[in-house]
Amino acid sequence: MDEPAEKSDVQTETISDELITFKSLGVVDVLCETCKDLKWTQPTKIQKEAIPVALAGNDIIGLAETGSGKTGAFAIPILQALLEKPQRLFGLVLTPTRELAYQISEQFEALGAAISVKCAVIVGGVDMMTQSLMLASKPHIVIATPGRLVDHLENTKGFSLRSLKCLVMDEADRILNMDFETEIDKILKVIPRERNTYLYSATMTKKVAKLQRAALKNPIRIEVATKYTTVDKLKQYYLFIPAKFKDVYLTYILNELAGKSCIIFCATCVNTQRITLMLRNLGMNAIPLHGQLSQAKRLSSLHKFRSKNNSILLATDVASRGLDIPHVDVVMNFDIPSRSKDYIHRVGRTARAGRAGKSITFVTQYDVELFQRIEQLIEKKLPLYKTEEEEVMVLAERVAEAQRYAKIELCDSKIGKKKRSNDQDTEDGHGMKQRLKKKRKR
Ligand code: AMP
Questions:
Q1: Structure confidence at residue 300 (pLDDT)
Q2: What is the model's pLDDT at position 431?
Q3: Closest CA to 346 of 368, 313, 379, 376
Q4: May I ask the CATH class of domain 11-223?
Q5: Cross-strand partners of 333
Q6: Residues forming a β-bridge with 60
Q7: 337 in contact with ligand 1, CB cutoff 6 A
Q8: Each residue's pLDDT tens digit, 290-332
């Protein structure tokens, strides 16, 4: 892969910034009209930079803050290229999470409404057969998570991506991580080398080896965010408390923030579920979003939160990247993220589209090193979130009771049962082997 070239400032040299329109960037009338219908009166910064570069046929490495309009920055040029040379299975967008795939598809469909663009979302947790039928009808754009796409490439008769013209990796640093290595290698093997590739992310790896895997050609690097910063309107705080009182502090803060829309990030599915149950026992309107829920439940939780039916969303990192929910007032890191970059993605769920937002990161005696790493990454010292310990502790008894009930409910649930069997496997080291033996005997 060639070293990415920095973008020159041709556009802004000739036209002052306010006068830049979708039309002046080279977007065709029909798409300009759709932008107008969507009330996108002016292109955003990343769109101003990326659209002309993509329309000129270049590959792109785009670094843009969450909520910057990056989906439009790649969707508009792809739709324009599709209009010029109409063809089925034209573009593929890879995303790390299912929810993000649906969100991107909605934007493609909205932007492509006037040209009847057909999209297929191919993600895990949904019936393979239904998806096979969708693929058989040859959509223009496929938006997929890597694992399920590979399943179809290997098992769905008649489906291939040999004619693909555009590949997008959204949240590219995550897609190019080791956890998707096998899938990405398989996908890249079966798509044409002659194509356009766009990588987008709020945080982007500088590791050349990783970027090389995406097989970009003379990519242009476009950066509208300063390195690993978070938006100005975001007020970030930390809370230093003993681990055993985390639940009480969370309850106290949520009481304080009553009526605000909050996302609370937890480290594991089980903890996410446990806290949801605990908060519900305390009369709060909480819903969970994590990888052990069915896809229908995940989408339903997201829908309820998006439509403001529920104001508290408890989530694992499946919700940390890219999700665009404009009304989130507060993000809490109940469990500190173990990868510092995830901090940027998580807090990026608030203070979107020019609005103000707040983030509160819980730091316990075990998290100090991780917290210092986050402060180093964002080059900021965070202020302490002020609480009155005495007032907080008044809630301790009620919270303990809610915790007890939550534990019982969790034990009775599928997730709790799964956890117990996993614990058994790790505790005695034989659980899994014994089950396998039994199965073989049968
Ligand atoms: P994204 O960063 O792609 O997730 O987009 C964030 C939000 O900005 C989405 O709700 C888009 O509909 C919206 N958006 C994208 N481009 C524009 C624009 N030019 N003007 C106004 N809103 C936009």
A1: 93
A2: 41
A3: 313
A4: alpha beta
A5: 265, 361
A6: 198, 220
A7: no
A8: 999 998 999 999 999 999 999 999 999 988 887 878 889 999 9
pLDDT in tens, 248-264: 999 999 999 998 999 99
Closest atom of ligand 1 to CA, residue 66: 2
The 3-state DSSP class for residue 200 equals strand
In angstroms, what is the span from residue 257 Cα to ligand 1's centroid?
27
Cβ of 70 less than 6 Å from ligand 1: yes
The CATH number for 234-417, chosen from 3.40.250.10, 3.40.50.300, 2.60.120.10, 3.40.50.2300, is: 3.40.50.300
Q: For 206-265, what is each residue's pLDDT tens digit?
A: 666 677 777 888 899 998 864 455 567 889 999 999 999 999 999 999 999 998 999 999
Nearest 5°: phi and psi at 182?
-60, -45
pLDDT of 352 > 80? The answer is no
Instruction: Determine the atom of ligand 1 nearest the C-alpha atom of 322.
Output: 4
Q: Report pLDDT for 360.
A: 98
Amino acid letter, 384 = L
In this prediction, residue 437 carries a pLDDT of 46
For the chain, the farthest-separated pair of C-alpha atoms sits apart, in whole angstroms, at 77
CA–centroid distance, 70 to ligand 1, in Å, is: 7
Q: What are the start-end ranges of the H helices in 169-288?
A: 172-175, 181-190, 208-212, 246-256, 269-281
Domain ranges of the chain: 11-223, 234-417
Q: Is 403 in the pocket of ligand 1 (CB under 6 A)?
A: no
Q: What is the C-alpha to C-alpha distance for residues 189 and 149, in angstroms, rounded to an integer?
A: 13
The reply to whether 11-223 and 234-417 are identical in fold is: yes
Helix (H) or strand (E) holding 48: helix 45-55
Q: Give pLDDT, residue 406.
A: 96
DSSP type of residue 384? B
Q: How far is the CA of 353 from the centre of ligand 1 (A)?
A: 8
For ligand 1, atom 6, name the residue with the nearest CA.
67
Q: What is the pLDDT of residue 358?
A: 94
Pocket flag, ligand 1, residue 67 (CB < 6 Å): yes
77 CB within 6 A, ligand 1 = no
Ligand 1 pocket member 321 (CB < 6 A): no
Tokens of 275: 């806290």
Report the separation in Å between the CA atom of 180 and the middle of ligand 1, taken as the mean of its atom positions: 27
Is any atom of ligand 1 closer than 6 Å to the C-beta of 265? no
Name 122's bridge partners. Answer: 144
Cβ of 72 below 6 Å from ligand 1: yes
Averaged pLDDT, 139-161: 97
Q: How far is the CA of 339 from the centre of ligand 1 (A)?
A: 27
